Amino acid sequence: MKIAVIGAGTVGSAVAKALSEKYEVIATRRRIEKVRWLEKHGVKLMKDNKAAAEVADVIILTVKPNKVRKVLEEIREVVKGKIVISFAAGIPLKVLKSSADAKFVRAMPNIAILVKESFTAYATNDLSDEEIKLVEEIFETFGKCIKIEEEYMDAITGLSGSGPAYASVFLESLIYGGLKVGLPRDVALLAAAQTLLGTAKLLLETNLHPAQIRDMVITPGGTTIDGIFELEDSRVRTAIMKAVDAATKKSKILSLEINR
Ligand SMILES: NC(=O)C1=CN([C@@H]2O[C@H](COP(=O)(O)OP(=O)(O)OC[C@H]3O[C@@H](n4cnc5c(N)ncnc54)[C@H](OP(=O)(O)O)[C@@H]3O)[C@@H](O)[C@H]2O)C=CC1
Ligand SMILES: O=C(O)[C@@H]1CCC=N1
């Protein structure tokens, strides 16, 4: 199966690289010289979106949201009846469908595609069971995936699409905390990253709620409660909830703007 990735930027190049292990991949962007390294992974580079979409069985759009309509206009004649997956934040299926006569999937992965640990949520109304299977096989090359109702896509964008950015702020803060108390940089980085990874795994592999994990770590009168006391005083939870809320609202605004 041939897959065309239209817009090989940050996400598109990660997508092309991951897919290249299993599929024949063509990737496009205007400045293809920026992603020559993809050729080492067997990815064919082109500037012509229409030519790439024409020879592909499945097309993945990884251009910015404001470019989606223009790109669909370019490729509309050659994607009739084909599966077109859009990763663009905030662009509803309705808008995609009004631009071309294809079978559309609106999806939201995250940058952990690079290490095959993306969380990809997707919505579609157009696909048969067999086509859903095919699309899930594609998403599984990026990590985990789930099908959701489209009404949740903006919230997913605000949580797991943007999530690696929030988690990186938290990780950076942990590392700097480590530096403040005198840890060598490499030790602080490893300690922070492995702790976050381990906690996420604990949550996914047990039935424990995060509050229970937190409670398990707090030894009465011990060290952790002093750290937690400071965190609660800084309203960290409110800050993170506000971040998810703001990014979700922005995704909704993008969909309103595109309809104008
Ligand atoms: N970054 C992330 O973590 C995530 C991003 N997304 C979504 O993925 C999309 C891309 O985001 P991101 O990778 O961050 O953005 P980038 O700006 O890094 O990538 C977009 C790419 O599109 C290319 N491009 C622009 N115009 C065209 C065109 N007409 N034809 C072909 N290619 C074109 C650009 O390259 P050139 O200028 O050389 O053409 C650019 O490299 C967005 O819609 C975003 O919402 C979704 C989930 C996570
Ligand atoms: O910042 C953005 O708009 C994209 C969508 C989700 C993550 N990055």
From TrEMBL:
Annotated metabolic or biological route of this protein: Amino-acid biosynthesis; L-proline biosynthesis; L-proline from L-glutamate 5-semialdehyde: step 1/1
Enzyme class name: oxidoreductase
Binding residues annotated for NADPH, in chain numbering: N49
Catalytic activity: L-proline + NAD(+) = (S)-1-pyrroline-5-carboxylate + NADH + 2 H(+); L-proline + NADP(+) = (S)-1-pyrroline-5-carboxylate + NADPH + 2 H(+)
Domain called Pyrroline-5-carboxylate reductase dimerisation: residue spans: 150-252
UniProt KW keywords: Amino-acid biosynthesis, Cytoplasm, NADP, Oxidoreductase, Proline biosynthesis
GO CC terms of this entry: cytoplasm
The enzyme's E.C. designation: 1.5.1.2
An annotated Gene Ontology molecular function: pyrroline-5-carboxylate reductase activity
Localization: Cytoplasm
Keyword Ubl conjugation part of the UniProt annotation: no
Main location: cytoplasm
Domain of life assignment: Archaea
Residue span, Pyrroline-5-carboxylate reductase catalytic N-terminal domain: 2-90
Alphabetical list of Pfam families matching this protein: F420_oxidored (PF03807), P5CR_dimer (PF14748)
Record flagged with keyword NADP: yes
Function: Catalyzes the reduction of 1-pyrroline-5-carboxylate (PCA) to L-proline.
Record-stated family: Belongs to the pyrroline-5-carboxylate reductase family.
Protein name listed in UniProt: Pyrroline-5-carboxylate reductase
Organism, scientific name: Thermococcus barophilus (strain DSM 11836 / MP)
